[in-house]
Design brief:
The protein is an alpha/beta fold. The chain contains 31 helices and 32 strands. The protein has 4 domains: 7-364, Alpha-Beta Barrel (TIM Barrel), CATH 3.20.20; 382-575, Rossmann fold (3-Layer(aba) Sandwich); 589-738, Gcn5-related N-acetyltransferase (GNAT) (Aminopeptidase); 741-915, Gcn5-related N-acetyltransferase (GNAT) (Aminopeptidase, 3-Layer(aba) Sandwich). Strands 20, 21, 22, 23, 24, 25, 26, 27, 28, 29, 30, 31 and 32 form a 13-stranded mixed sheet that branches. The longest helix is centred in the middle third of the chain and has 23 residues, at 359-381.
C-alpha cells in the first residue's frame, strides 16, 4: 500500500475508492504544540488528513522541526497514506518566518527588501536558498510568493510582505521567486488572490475586509502578477477571505465568480486552489465552518484550510461528509480536487525523502553560502532615500565623547526572532500585563541600541516613545544629545509615530549644536518605506524594510560608514524620482487642428536645429500627424498656455483597429520647459486613452504611419540613454525592443543593379508587375492580412486608393497567379506623402518604397525582398527621382542585403511594444 504511485495511477488506484481517504486529502490543518498531539495524530490516522500547516507556534529550532515533521510522516506512513503528507509553511523572510533558528536557518530580507535590491537574480537565489533550508527539515510546500500589489499603500497590513505597488515589478520578482522554489524542488503557492493590496477595513474583527475595486480594475493592476505566476507554473493559489464589492459573495474563497470564473476560466489556472482559513472570525461567525467548507468546494477550492481548533476541524470534516450525503457535493467533484492534490504531491515529495530528511547535516553544509547570500541581500537592500545635510556616516558629525540619542517605538517582537524566543523562554513574562507588553516592546530594539554603542565606542542614550507623544523626558534627552536617530515602524498605519517624528524634527530644527547648525536628525523606517518617502522636510531618511536582527545590524554598518547602501525605493517611488522633486500635473487637452496648428508648427521648429541636418523632423509640419484613415482612431493631446495659445507639449496616439494595437506616435515638449512633468502628463493621458479602446491588445512606441518616429531614436548618445531611462521609468519594458531603421539610396542617377542579384532573380523565376487603383485590392490585401504589424494594411489601402503618385508592385512565380510578395511605391505627389516628411527633406525629388510583404511559404525571402526593392528603384529612376527612401526596415535581418544594394541607414529606432493587459501607469 505504501509503494510510490504516479499521479495518473493514483487517481484510479483502488485505494481512492475509499471516499474517506479522498476527503482527508482535501484538507490542510494545523495544531498547537511543538510535538505531535493526540488530535493531529487522530486527524492523520482516522480522517486521513493529507496536508499539515506548521506555524511559528509549532517550531523551536531546525532540529526540533526535523523531528516533528518526521514524526508526522511516520504516522501517515503507518496509517497507510499512499503518498506522504504535504507539510506547508509560511517562510516569507523579513518578519514573516515560521521557522527561526539563528544557528541553522538563514535570515533574508522581506519581499520589499528584496525588490529594493533591484535584482531578480538575487530574488531567485534567495527563494532557492529559503526553499532548500525548508526541504532539509522535511517541509515540502512553501506558502509563497506573496503576489499582492499594494494599490493602496497607506493602510494595508501587508506592508513589506509585498514586493511593492508596481504590478510589473511585483510580477518580475514573483516569477523570479517561483523559479527559485522550483529549482529547490519545493511546491509553491501564490497569495492572496485576488489581492490584499487595497482592502477597506470596516472596524470590528467580525467585519470582512472589502476589496472595493471592480474586476476590471483588478485586471489592470492587481491581477497582473497572478496572471504571470500562472503563466510560469505556480503550483497553488490561496484565495483570500475578503469580500468584494463587485461580487455578490461575502468571501472571495467562497465565491464561484472569483474561483471558477475568474481564476480558473479567465486566468486559466488548473492548479490547487486553497481557501482562506475557515476559522477566521469574520467567516466562522457569519457562516460557520461546516457551511463554509461546502461553499468553498462549490466555489472551486480544492484544499480547505482549517488551522486553529480541533473542534473547527471536525466541523469542517463533518460538513464535507454531510455535503456528500445530501448531494450538494459530488464524488466526481472531490476526485477533480484529489487529482490536483496528488499531482502537487508527486512533484514535491516521495516516501524516500519524507522518511529520511537530511536535517542539520545539510543545513550545516549550506550555511556559509547562504550567510554570504544574506549579507549581499541586506547590503543591497538598505536604502538611503535622502541625506541632504550629509549626516552619514555619523562618525563624521559625532566625536567620541558626544552622545547619540536613539528613539524607538513600542512594537511586538517578530514571531520568529531572537527577541521573541527570549520572551517565550522567560518566566518573567509568563503572566500577561500592561507592564509586560511595554517591556516586550522595548526589547525589540534593545540590541540595536547596544550595537550602535559598540560600533561608535561612545555613549548611546536609548528611550522608547508611545502614542503619548514627545514627553519631558524626551525633550531632556534631545537637549542633551548631539545627534538623534528616530525609528519608525509602519508609521503610515501607526499615526502616532508620524506625529512624534514631525514634532521631533521641529525640536531639532530649533535646537542648535556647537557650529550653529540645527541638531542632526536621522529618520529610519524599519518596515514600510512609505512612512516618510514623500516627506522631503526630513533631510536624512533610511529604509531597512524589516526589523530583524540581521537588518538592524546592516543598518548599524550603514550609519557608521562600514557599508555603502545600494538599495532603492520600490516601484514608481524610485522610477519617477518623486522623492527628490515634486511632480506637477498639467491640464491635458484634446488637440484642436484649427486652434493649435500654428502653435504646433512653432513647437516643431524648436526641435529642428540648423546644425542637425539629420533631424527626422526636417520637412515636418502640423499636417504630418493627421492620417485621416477610416480604420485608424487618432486622438492627439496638447498642454498649452490658454492665454498665449503657445503649445508646451504635444502627443499623438493612433489605434489601429485592424490589429488591436494602440500607438504612442510622438511626444514633444518645449525644450525650454523640460523637467516640469509636461511629458509625464501627456504620456499618462495618452496611455489611459489607448487602454480604454475596445479590444486593444498591445501598446507600442513608434509607428510606420505616419512615418516620423518609427520608435525611440536609437544611438549611443546621452540623449538616447536619457529617453530610454525616461520611458523605462513610466512603465515601458525597454528590453522588448524591435530594432528598425529608415534607409536612403543616394544619387539614383548613377546607381546600377548588380549582376549577381539579377542572376538570383532569374534563377528564382519570379515575375513582377505594377498595379494602381482599388480594382486590384482584394488579393493584395489578403496577402497583407497575413501579418499583424500595425499600419501595414492602412498603407496599402492608402496606396491603392491613390491615383496620383502611389502604386503596388506584385510578385508571382512564373505560371502561377498567386501573389507571393508586394511592396508599396510612392512619391511626393502621393495624397499621403505628407505622412512621410523625409520625402521633403531636400529640394531634390525623393521616391519612397514602403512595407514589403512576403508570403510565409516563400523560401527565398531575401531574394524576393531585393527583387521587390529593385523594381521600386527602377520605377523611381524612370520618374527622375534623385534618391529613394525605404521608410521602415527591420534591422535584425534585412540591413545587410539592402546595404549591398547601395542603401545607407538614415535613422535608427527601437520600436517598443508591450501587452496592453499588463501595462501599469506609475502612480
Amino acid at each position: 500500500m505504501n509503494e510510490p504511485l504516479t499521479p495518473t495511477s493514483v487517481e484510479f488506484a483502488p485505494v481512492w475508492d475509499d471516499i474517506g481517504r479522498v476527503r482527508g486529502q482535501l484538507f490542510m490543518m494545523g495544531f498547537e504544540g511543538t510535538e505531535v498531539t493526540p488530535q493531529i495524530k487522530g486527524l492523520i490516522e482516522e480522517y486521513h488528513v493529507g496536508t499539515i500547516l506548521l506555524t511559528a507556534k509549532n517550531l523551536r529550532s531546525a532540529e526540533q522541526t526535523t523531528r516533528l515533521v518526521l514524526d508526522l510522516q511516520k504516522i501517515a506512513h503507518k496509517a497507510g497514506h499512499p503518498l506522504p503528507l504535504a507539510i506547508a509553511l509560511d517562510q516569507e523572510n523579513g518578519g514573516v518566518n515560521s521557522l527561526f533558528d539563528e544557528d541553522c536557518i538563514t535570515q533574508f530580507p522581506s519581499a520589499m527588501g528584496v525588490a529594493a535590491t533591484g535584482s531578480t537574480k538575487l530574488a531567485c537565489d534567495i527563494a532557492k536558498a529559503t526553499a532548500e533550508e525548508l526541504c532539509s527539515v522535511g517541509v515540502n510546500w512553501i506558502m509563497g510568493p506573496c503576489l499582492d500589489v499594494l494599490t493602496n499603500v497607506k493602510n494595508q497590513p501587508l506592508g513589506v510582505r509585498s514586493f511593492g505597488h508596481n504590478a510589473e515589478e511585483v510580477s518580475r520578482f514573483g516569477v523570479a521567486s517561483l523559479r527559485g522554489f522550483k529549482d529547490a524542488g519545493i511546491a509553491s503557492c501564490g497569495k492572496h488572490f485576488p489581492s490584499y493590496g487595497n482592502l477597506e477595513f470596516l472596524g470590528s474583527s467580525l467585519d470582512v475586509p472589502v476589496i472595493t475595486e471592480s474586476l476590471e480594475q483588478l485586471s489592470l493592476r492587481a491581477l497582473v502578477p497572478f496572471r504571470q505566476a500562472i503563466k510560469h507554473g505556480v503550483d497553488a493559489m490561496m484565495v483570500g477571505g475578503c469580500a468584494m464589492s463587485s461580487v455578490s459573495a461575502m468571501h472571495a474563497c467562497l465565491s464561484e465568480e472569483v474561483v471558477e470564473d475568474l481564476l480558473r476560466r479567465k486566468l486559466g489556472f488548473d492548479g490547487v486552489v486553497i481557501s482562506e482559513c475557515l476559522e477566521m472570525e469574520a467567516l466562522s461567525h457569519n457562516i460557520g465552518v461546516g457551511n463554509g467548507t461546502i461553499m468553498a468546494f462549490n466555489a472551486g477550492c480544492d484544499l480547505i484550510l482549517v488551522c486553529r481548533s480541533y473542534t473547527g476541524q471536525l466541523e469542517a470534516l463533518r460538513g464535507l461528509e454531510l455535503g456528500l450525503e445530501d448531494g450538494i457535493i459530488t464524488q466526481s467533484r472531490l476526485k477533480q480536487s484529489l487529482r490536483r492534490m496528488l499531482e502537487i504531491k508527486a512533484k514535491c515529495t516521495s516516501w524516500e525523502k519524507a522518511l529520511a530528511p537530511e536535517g542539520i547535516a545539510r543545513l550545516s553544509r549550506m550555511q556559509r553560502t547562504h550567510m554570504s547570500l544574506s549579507m549581499e541581500a541586506y547590503n543591497s537592500s538598505i536604502t538611503v532615500v535622502r541625506d541632504k545635510d550629509r549626516l552619514l556616516p555619523l562618525s563624521n558629525i559625532l566625536d567620541a565623547d558626544e552622545e547619540l540619542l536613539l528613539l524607538t517605538p513600542l512594537v511586538k517582537p517578530l514571531p520568529a526572532s531572537a527577541a521573541s524566543q527570549a520572551l517565550a523562554a522567560s518566566a518573567e513574562f509568563s503572566e500577561p500585563s500592561s507592564h509586560n507588553a511595554l517591556m516586550s516592546g522595548e526589547i525589540v530594539f534593545k540590541e540595536f541600541g547596544r550595537s550602535l554603542a559598540r560600533q561608535r565606542n561612545g555613549r548611546v542614550l536609548h528611550a522608547s516613545y508611545t502614542a503619548n507623544g514627545v514627553r519631558p523626558v524626551h525633550e531632556t534627552l534631545i537637549n542633551r544629545a548631539n545627534a538623534v536617530v528616530v525609528v519608525t515602524a509602519d508609521a503610515n498605519r501607526n499615526l502616532y509615530q508620524q506625529g512624534f517624528t514631525k514634532h521631533l524634527a521641529a525640536i531639532c530644527k530649533l535646537t542648535q549644536v556647537v557650529d550653529k547648525r540645527e541638531k542632526p536628525l536621522v529618520v529610519v523606517s524599519v518596515s514600510s518605506p512609505y512612512d516618510f518617502a514623500m516627506e522631503t522636510s526630513l533631510g536624512t531618511y533610511i529604509c531597512t524594510y524589516d526589523f530583524t536582527e540581521t537588518a538592524l545590524q546592516a543598518l548599524v554598518s550603514v550609519l557608521f560608514g562600514d557599508l555603502t547602501p545600494a538599495g532603492s525605493l520600490p516601484g514608481s517611488l524610485r522610477q519617477n524620482d518623486k522623492v527628490h522633486q515634486s511632480r506637477q500635473t498639467w491640464l491635458v487637452e484634446a488637440w484642436d487642428k484649427a486652434r493649435d496648428a500654428d502653435a504646433l508648427d512653432s513647437l516643431l521648429k524648436k526641435h529642428i536645429y540648423p546644425v542637425e541636418t539629420s533631424s527626422v523632423l526636417i520637412g515636418c509640419n502640423s499636417a504630418a500627424f493627421n492620417v485621416d484613415h477610416q480604420s485608424i482612431d487618432e486622438t492627439h493631446f496638447v498642454v498649452r498656455n490658454s492665454s498665449t495659445r503657445a503649445l508646451y507639449g504635444f502627443c499623438t496616439t493612433y489605434f489601429f483597429s485592424s490589429t488591436g494595437i494602440g500607438v504612442l506616435g510622438a511626444i514633444f515638449v518645449d525644450p525650454e520647459r523640460r523637467r516640469l512633468s509636461i511629458g509625464h502628463s501627456l504620456h499618462n493621458r495618452a496611455i489611459k486613452h489607448l487602454l480604454q479602446k475596445h479590444r486593444v491588445r498591445r501598446l507600442q512606441l513608434g509607428t510606420r504611419l505616419p512615418g516620423i518616429y518609427l520608435g525611440i531614436p536609437s544611438s549611443n548618445s546621452p540623449e538616447r540613454k536619457r529617453l530610454g531611462r525616461w520611458f523605462s521609468t513610466i512603465g515601458w519594458d525597454m528590453g522588448q525592443a524591435r530594432p528598425v531603421c529608415s534607409m536612403l539610396l543616394f544619387d539614383l542617377t548613377a546607381w546600377i543593379v548588380s549582376d549577381s542579384l539579377l542572376r538570383s532573380l532569374q534563377t528564382a523565376g519570379f515575375e513582377f508587375d505594377l498595379v494602381y487603383g482599388p480594382d486590384h485590392a482584394k488579393p493584395i490585401l489578403d496577402l497583407v492580412n497575413t501579418t499583424s504589424r500595425q499600419g501595414m494594411m492602412e498603407i496599402y489601402e492608402l496606396a491603392l486608393a491613390d491615383h496620383t503618385g502611389s502604386g503596388v508592385i506584385r510578385a508571382r512565380r512564373a505560371g502561377d497567379e498567386t501573389i507571393i510578395g508586394t511592396v508599396v511605391i510612392y512619391n511626393a505627389a502621393s495624397n499621403w506623402s505628407h505622412l512621410v516628411p523625409a520625402l521633403n527633406r531636400t529640394d531634390d525629388v525623393i521616391g519612397g518604397i514602403s512595407t514589403p510583404v512576403i508570403a510565409p511559404s516563400v523560401a527565398e525571402y531575401s531574394t524576393l525582398l531585393q527583387g521587390l526593392i529593385l523594381l521600386g528603384i527602377k520605377q523611381h529612376q524612370r520618374q527622375q527621382a534623385s534618391a529613394v527612401l525605404l521608410d521602415c526596415v527591420d534591422r535584425d535581418g534585412n540591413v545587410d542585403n539592402l546595404t549591398a544594394m547601395g542603401f545607407t541607414v538614415l535613422h535608427n529606432y527601437d520600436e517598443i511594444s508591450c501587452d496592453a493587459g499588463t501595462f501599469v501607469l506609475p502612480t
